[in-house]
Each structure stands twice: as structure tokens, then as C-alpha cells.
Design brief:
Chloramphenicol Acetyltransferase, Rossmann fold, 9 helices, three-stranded mixed sheet
Amino acid sequence: MEAYAHQDVPFELVVERLNPVRSGGRHPLFQVALVLQNNEEARFGLPGLEVRSESLGTGTAKFDLTVNLWETFDADGAPAGIDGFIEYATDLYDRETVELLGGRLVRLLGGVVGDLGVRVGVVDVLGGVERERLLGWSGGGVGVPVSVPVPVSVSLPGLFGGRVRECPDAVAVVSGDVSWTYGEVAGRANRLARWLTGRGVGPGDVVAVAVPAGLEQLVTVLGVLGSGAGFVPVDVEYPGARIGWLLEDARPGLVLSTQAAAESLPEGLLAEVVAVDDPAMVEACASLPDDEVTDADRRRALELSDVAYVIYTSGSTGVPKGVEVT
């Protein structure tokens, strides 16, 4: 039996010996630290001697951002809240940004404490100024009512459709010199969704999207979601073997791509490959209505438990694994 002795090694010594490629823009270990001091406070005293601790600042930040929290107690030892401070690197953050981050954390914790059964994703973390700013950027304008938290009974296509109805003429996406409004994006996506439903694609199905990043990719994803099916993102720059394995494992009923990207897909795929920019495909979609697709148009009603997309892990511990997200 071999015996191993434990010895603490200073982090600086590990870095010195390994000599990794360093970047001056970030810490080599991690960038953000969240520290909660909830251990019983240690006390030291000697007869005739009173000792107390004093915090001294170093004037420098150890990490990009550190949130230090500690529990407080009243004279009777009962919990009296949590105090804390945020330390940050001034070459990366300004005071206003850090205060905004701190405010979001306080609102998040307050929302969870107020309702222990609440979903973290529906807790509103934005302040009034931030909300108005975001509404202005998205074209909603100041004063546009926003429901918070978002009802969990609304599907992703439903949420997008609601936004389209609120501000169809607001800019939704910009790519280079081209910008599309919510109405334009929805029109293109709805036509593709109707083409898919006409092919029998709907809730419970999976469609692979092998479209390069850009406006066409956004429309394709929204079109698949509008049909009720889930999508599998496929990076066309992946090696052919990985793409082939991914598509074999996911077993999509259809692969949507572009004429150029389809040439890089491996041969012998079991699923049919359709180029969304093929002239015949463009003409077929253009002949379809562009109004929103509803459950009445789908094969069956869309449920929140239906798959929205399937994402694959990197496969660093073996073969990639698909994770279904509803």
C-alpha cells in the first residue's frame, strides 16, 4: 500500500513551475469570487486584554470582482441580516456598474426570501432605470407595461409572438448594414413554420439547424420553434465526423441548412437536408401566409414539456451527450 503525504503548495509556486501562458486582462484562476462568512466568529482574549479585529484595505483588488458577505446577529445572538461589500478592479469596472450588479443581487435574494418556492428565473432583478433603458433599446419605448414575472404558462413562440404584436415596427436584429423589425423577422419565421407544419413537423419532433450565424439562422430557429418542434444547433465548422455522429444520435426528421453550408455536411445522412436559401424553397415559403402559427395550425397543441432544443456537450469525458431543454 502506498502512502501519500498532503502538503499545501502556494498558488504562486504552482504558477511559477507550470509557467502557463498568462493574460494581463484576467486572473489565471478565476475572475469572480462570492464569499459568505457564516462560521462562528473566533474570539481571542487574555486577562486584562481586550482584542478586536480591524479591516485594512490594500488598495488593490485580488480578483476582477469579489462579493464579500457575512451574517450579523443582535445582542441576544439572533440573526439580524447579512452585510457585505463588493471589491472590484477599477480597470475593468466603474462604480456605477458595480452598484447596478449589487442592486441586482439584493433584488434576487429579496425575491427568493419572499417566496421560497419561486423559480429563480422569474425573479425580477432589474431596477426601474435599467428597465426603461432596455425598453428604449428594444423599441418598446418608455412606459410600455411589462409583465414581471413572466407567466410560466407561456411558451417561447408565444412570448416572441407577444413581443411582435406589441412593437412590430421596432428593430429586432441588426447584422452589418441590414436590420429587420420584429414584424419582418416574424413574417419570415412564420412562413417557414407553416412550410414545416405542411411537412408534418410539429411538437415532439426535432429539426437540425445547420445554418451559419446570421439573420438566416435566427429566422430558421424561430421557424422551427413556431412549428412546435425543437431544434438541434449544428456548427457547420465542426469536423464532419462530429457532425455525423451528432445527427446520428439526435435523429432529426429534417436538416435545415444553406446551399453553401450543406456542402460541408457529411455524406450519407439519414435525414433529408433542405437549404433554406434554395430558390425553390424561398418561393415555396413566400407563397404561404405570414401570420402567427397557433395550436390550431400545428399537429397538436404545444405543451411546456415539449422539447425546445437539444444541446450537446463538448464530449471532453467521452462522446458528446445531448441534453433536452424544454
